[in-house]
Amino acid sequence: MPSLWVDADACPRAARDIVIRAAERTRTPAWLVANHALPLPPSRWAKGLSVASGLDAADDEIVRRLVPGDLLITSDLPLAMEALDKGAAVMTSRGEPLTADNIRSRVQMRDFMETLRASGEHTGGPKGYSDADRREFANALDRWLARHR
What angle do CA 64, 144, 95 make, to 5 degrees? Predict the structure, then answer.
C-alpha cells in the first residue's frame, strides 16, 4: 500500500487535518515531516516525523523514505522534482497535480518571479488558503486514494 508524505513545514494546517482524516478513514500510512514537533491527534495511521533543523533537512528525509507509488503533498518545486524522479506522485495542498509534464514550466515561472522580486518588483505572495482550496484538495486526495487502494 502506498504511503502519504506531507512536507508539513509549509503545509496549511487545514490540509494537514484533511490528510490525517483521510489516512484514518482509508487506513493509509501518512507521514507529516517537519523540522519541529507537530501537534497531531493520536492516530494509528498518521504520524509526525521531526527532523533536525537545517536547510532542506525535512526534504532530504522525505526523499530518502519515498518509494515509487507514494504520494507527496508539497508546494516545494525542487522537492517535487526529486519525488517525481523517484516514481512518487505529487500534489500541492490545493489539490493541483505536479507531474513530469508541468513541473519544469512551474520551476521556470518561479525563477522568473524571483528575478522580478530581486529587481524590486512587488509581486505579492501566494493567495490565502480558502474554503475552495480545502475542498479541491480533499477531493483530489480522495480521488488519488480511491485509485491507489
Answer: 85
- CB-based contact 42:68 (threshold 8 Å): no
For residue 67 the three cell numbers come to 518509494
DSSP H or E segment with residue 103: helix 103-118
Residues 91, 10, 78, 28: is their CA dihedral positive or negative?
A: negative
Which tens digits make up the pLDDT trace of 10-30? Answer: 899 999 999 999 999 999 999
Number of Cβ within a 10 Å radius of residue 85: 12
Evaluated on CA atoms 17, 20, 21, 23, the torsion sign reads positive
Q: How far is CA 107 from CA 110, 131, 137, in A?
A: 5, 26, 21
CA 117 to chain centre: 25
Cβ burial of 39 (10 Å; 0-12, 13-18, 19+) is exposed
- pTM recorded for the entire structure: 0.86
Tell me the backbone φ, ψ of residue 32, rounded to 5 degrees.
-105, 110
Structural domains of the chain, ranges and CATH numbers in brackets? 4-147 (3.40.50)
